[in-house]
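re the bet — no i am not wrong, look at it urself. input seq straight from the record:
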Amino acid sequence: MAWPVLFVMSVPTAVPPAAPRNPRAIPGSFLVDLTPGADAGPLRELLRTQGGRVHHAYSLIPSRYNVRGLPAGSEVALSRLPGVLRVRPDLEVRAILIDSVPLIGALFDDDSNPETPTGLISAWKDYMFDYDLLKSTVAADFDAAASCLETNDSRDTQALERKSPAMGTAFFYLVRARNDCPGGDGGIGFTASGVARNGRTCP
């Protein structure tokens, strides 16, 4: 008999930022210059490969953004300036801000109306949406006695247990958060004497 195993982890809710008066590239972020008529596919691909997702969007007065140091109308592409792409997504948004990605050394200015951005999308990488689900036959051992029921699971926050424990025994489960940062696997706590507990490594 299959037993569903559900788990819930709280993730901080991001508050949509106010529209900036003059958006610029900042550490940990970059802006994407967008041009009308271009295919939205490259933007979606950029978000997908960066692990990002749209959080909030503004659609304001139309104008155009240029990269400082490049001639007006220049085609800015990933090969010219890493992390910058000129495409047009849906909803007529002309600028995009993606957090938690490497900084590029360029400032973006609205050359037609510096007080009014055309639009801004704030997005971030899903650092805390991957989980391991460890299963053990021993309550105090999620290392040698454990197996990985789920590995790098993301948005469904559920797993399916296809086995039943033998009479008089039990299965024990532990959810471990993972992210893309170096050493980003979460710990699983400490013993009463303060020694860190080990958790089985999942692929």
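see?? The two ends are 27 Å apart (CA to CA). told u. also The CA atoms of residues 42 and 103 lie 20 Å apart. so pay up
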